[in-house]
Amino acid sequence: MDENSLAVWAIILIVAVIIWFVLEVIAEWGIFQKAGEKGWKALIPVYDVYVSHKIVGMSHIWFILEVIAWVIESVFLGLTAIPEWIDIAFGIPVAIITVTSAVIHAVKLCDCFGKGFAFKVGVILLPSVFSMIIAFGNAEYRKPKA
Questions:
Q1: Is the pLDDT of residue 128 over 80?
Q2: Which one in 13, 42, 92, 133 has a CA-CA gap of 20 to 30 Å to 20?
């Protein structure tokens, strides 16, 4: 592959990623509006996660744990000379918190929009695609049970 075709493929990939990101933000905007929140809240990083957790009825502790995980990840991204055992000691809990929170959020999101087991599996495996289905489809929001 020559340099020109490689550059073309790189541009195509960058444009595709940008389009996908914009679609994800639009989907989140739509989900927020269906849940009675203002759509612009989807544009503010971190706050969008807080609002999304609130929409699905997740405990605030999950949001706090995610913020702590993001801070830990950010700190470790900036450090290059840390011992491997420290990286593992912090990395494993951060991964567990992140994945667990994402799965709980996905299940609760589906519950709020009246989706069943198969859809929940879809949201867990392909969250972007299934969030777009919720946002652009005819699913109606139901407030989560306390």
A1: yes
A2: 92
